[in-house]
Amino acid sequence: MATAPSFDFDGNVDRALADGQLRTNLRRAMDILVEKRRAVFDDTENLQALRSAGNAIKRRALSKLPQLLEKLEKNCEKNGIRVHWAEETQEANRIVLDIVRSHGVAEVVKGKSMVSEEMHLNRYLADHDVEALETDLGEFIIQLNGETPSHIIVPAIHKNKDEVADIFHEKIPDTPYTEDVEALTAIARKVLRKRFAAAKVGVSGVNFAVAETGTLLLVENEGNGRMCTTAPDVHVAVMGLEKVVEKLSDVPPLLRLLTGSATGQLITTYVNMITSPRKEAEKDGPKEVHLVILDNGRSRILADPELRQTLLCIRCGTCLNHCPVYLRIGGHAYGHVYPGPIGKILTPQMEGLDRAGVLALASSLCGACAEVCPVKIPIPSLIRRLRAESYAGGDKKAVPGGGCSRNLTETMIWKGWELVNLMPTANRLSLKAAGLLGGRAPKIGPLRKWTCTRTSPVFARESLHERTKKEGVKDE
Amino acid sequence: MRKPDKVYFFGTCLIDMAFPEAGMAAIRLIQKEGVEVIFPRQQSCCGQPAYNSGFMEEAAAVARKQIRVFERPYPIVVPSGSCAGMMKLHYPEMFAGTSMASAAHHFAERVFEWSSFLVRMLQVRYRDLGAPVKATWHSSCHAMREMGAVTDAKSLIGQFENVELVPLQREEECCGFGGTFSVKQPAISAAMVNDKIDDIVNTGASTVLAGDCGCLLNINGAMAHRGLAIEGKHLAEFIWERTDGNRT
């Protein structure tokens, strides 16, 4: 997916807003997801208690992350799962490729994984002559069409069934056109079954990794995840290092929050708990299981006591579903792997404020995301913090690219604003001036942008300061 | 808490500049309940524009000024959920761990959103003197999420028997104002406000009510731009007109 040099957010936004079909698809899909979540979390008190528990569990995990990761490694290895560490995505890609090559295969089947998107794993493997086949239905659709996911949970949410019908008809050989959903699913199933049967290596993500038991937990609804992790001889799981939790008992509340927030389900159709490769005398399961743990900037995020809250995220995607900005522009406009509110705080921290800081500006700070976040990430506060970091001076750079937005004009504007609001005389004069202008302020700068959609604000001839004075409201 | 004899009124910079009528109405409706209103002339802005834009030092300087100006122990009534949220929730965050922490905390404790103050502290009762009207209501994000004031505002509207309140389909969806967001991301903001206006138009209401003048500046400006005759009004002004009539 395009990153910095070709990242034209405003252009992406304009294209997305002009796409009426996209906006209709998104609104329809979001309405359903929001309603399903509401229905499953209909008991407000329970939900709040659950969110607090989720927040506490993840906070506890982050507070002792290094120890938990060591413990996870120890217990995984004890169970026969080989653990690999990668600081950067290229390193993680290399590890996966080496495993694939050591088994002499040229194709892998993949379950849905956002970390693999973060690694651009498919592209990397393709560059090294290994084909990675996405097996989640949504991922399968967009892979056929040469696209990337536009949503963390529902990757093809921007497509409606007619568009899917077109894609299948065009891209899968000998496929007659059909808009029938069951028929479409059957087509995908037929393609995928053959590939599962032939696959030697399966790649998956991880929803939670339990340090106490060395267990990898994976939720899904289609069974493709189970196929990827059990049918091939080799299973390679990739995860971001913040996915580790301390105990098995931490899992049920998080699972409930994850599935309820993501798809409005009490539980997913499949909950896979992977604790070892095939044991002696067992008839199925992979002979080898590998776990690749990726940092990619997460340790740096963890170092800041406020920004580390970004790592509480369990990737449920509900902040996207409730975001009035995501709803209008869709996931691709964000130009990076993680879209929506979580993307606005995660992407600039991973990519740098100079490259992706604009994403933090694309928020009205309405707070809808924080209201629904299952682990209570204060997303608007973190957006504000990132905005401040992009203007930060001096050497204190908590985020890469910090201070990149500093410019004289804005600095002067806010200094002027400060003076007007500190000095009563300046305040009185500016109110007077605004009143004299009325609605006739020159349409330059911000006002030009404002008046594309709205008439000029009309300033009152008499301010409230003057009115209260005139009408004898006491000063004290 | 019992009904106070005296309150501070924080007018907000937007009302000061562009909606003084709403401010006067809010003040009069408090006075009408026998409570004295003090309007410190040294007041200015709550600091939110700079705070949300990432200019924290400038925001803190202006916030400190308000904390000093509103120093007596009277309740501080604010006719905006957004400015009230800033003062009640974000001042303590801003000054946590500084020498202003305790002052910010005591200040924040005294902040009330205007409609909540009328309902919870003054227990106002109104008789509707206005003509029948069809109105709708927009829930401002911060009034709803930070101040929990929306049920109070709606209960006030519910006291007016000649007002038919037609709900918006998406009452709780942001109108796209977001302060500097509206000019930093004008295209997204425009899409949001235009959807909001479609929703308003579909209700058939002649008036859209809100408790925040930021939303009103946005919604009214965009409605006028589209040549619509629907009027967006602060709840205080609407109530004042329907209970008194002899406006100055």
Written overview of the protein:
The complex is a heterodimer of chains A (476) and B (248). In chain A, 50% of the residues lie in helices and 10% in strands. By secondary structure, chain A is α/β, with parallel strands linked by helices. A 6-stranded parallel β-sheet of chain A has the order 1-10-7-4-2-3, with helices on both faces. In chain A, strand 5 (208-210) and strand 6 (215-220) form a beta hairpin. In chain A, helix 2 (20-40) crosses helix 12 (251-263), helix 9 (161-171) crosses helix 10 (181-198) and helix 16 (340-351) packs parallel to helix 19. Chain B has helices spanning 13-18, 20-31, 48-53, 56-69, 81-95, 101-109, 114-121, 141-145, 150-158, 181-184, 186-203, 213-225, 235-243; strands spanning 6-9, 36-38, 76-78, 111-113, 133-137, 163-165, 207-210, 231-234. In chain B, strands 2-1-3-4 form a 4-stranded parallel β-sheet, sandwiched between helices. In chain B, strand 7 (207-210), helix 12 (213-225) and strand 8 (231-234) form a beta-alpha-beta unit. In chain B, helix 2 (20-31) crosses helix 13, helix 5 (81-95) runs antiparallel to helix 6 (101-109) and helix 7 (114-121) crosses helix 9 (150-158). At the A-B interface, helix 1, helix 15, helix 18, helix 19 and helix 20 of A face helix 1, helix 2, strand 2, helix 3 and helix 4 of B.
